[in-house]
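Support reply, case 0932

Customer input (verbatim):
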Amino acid sequence: MKTEKKWIKKPSLTTQVLIGAMAGIVVGYFSKTVGLQLEIFGTIFMNLIQMIIIPLIFPVIILAIVNISDTKSFGKVAGKSFMYFFTVTTGLIILSILAGKWTAIGSHFEAGNMTTESLDGIASGIDFQTFFLSIVPSNLFQAFADGNLLPILFFGVLLGLALVSIGEKAQPVISFFESWSQAMFKMIDYAISFAPIGVFGFLAYDIAAYGIGNLFSLGQFVLFTYVAFAVVVFVIFPIIAWLFHIPYFALLKTIGDLVLVVFTTGSSSVVLPSLIDRLKKYGVSPAVSSFVTPLGYSFNLNGACVYISLATMFIVNMYDVTLGLGEIIALVLFLTIVTKGIATVPSGAVVVLLAAATQLGLPAEGVALMVSVDFFINMGRSAVNVIGNALAPVIIAQTEKELAYGKMRVQMAKVSEIDR
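Our regenerated output:
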């Protein structure tokens, strides 16, 4: 009589990441010394991903332009993308400012003896001339070395258009980039499999290094911000998706493990290549997903817009500053513009917050107070950024009739089968 072997089913990546996160929190909380030493695992994971991001994004942008092929189609996709980005981010900024004003968040908080030490070495504003000049690289190899995404996107778009214009002569180069991008996607799969260990190391170090004292002292703001993030993810995004006839929660389920990785590492860049690949499997055409998603990482940072608006209003209320309708309109316009430069500026969210505070004549100490809990906020902020940048390509693909519903249903069935 044959005996059947019962194999233990390997946990999903989401489950593995959750286990790694909980283990990291426990180790970091109970053993500060060990927790600090475990940072190496998180650093290795980040390095693995960052090593691949630029070598992958560069060819997929070129291939996206080649696949769109028609210059008019490219212009339509780009135009729709920017219109969507500016509409959604501006709407979120308005709602967040009004929510901060209506609830008077921060009005009962005592600043105490806050200093500005945490702001040392951080720029106090955004130089728009430098920002726009940085889009056109004077040295492409320097842009690659710095990992600066915008100039690489710009060069990739131009190269893609050039390849389209020379016709058949471009085929060997296109074939090379196609093979190269497939190899990079496979490398991303290898790197993502290391995520549970990386998350374990990250959280063990962060809890050991920063503790949870600041979280409790500014719990009101942290909780309020996370409620706002939840409203965006579970109310506003579903409404936007419904307007375009997109099955939003199926999309959220498809990228759930990637969102969890982003939340626990606090970095949205770690899943950019995987997000592009996941959207393709979901049914978004390669041309749209490869072009719109990286673009959104610079111009569609929904979580950052919500956080910066709420943090600004927290500081406004804390110092009992009254904003009239004119000041609110000016603040909305200001934040709509400056939040588009966050991705190219070190400590971008803090820089924009400082710029907004300066614009309103608020003390820098208020910004320093926000920096003290930025680690806890950044996890949710990054997760919302990624969800927003998953929804955007799906909507653009829908408007361009580049969304394969049949393929989506197959993928959704596979996801359900895995869950069972």
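We compared this against your earlier run and they match. Two observations from our side: Confidence is low (pLDDT under 50) at residues 113-126, 409-420. The radius of gyration is 22 Å. Please reopen the case if you see a mismatch on your end.
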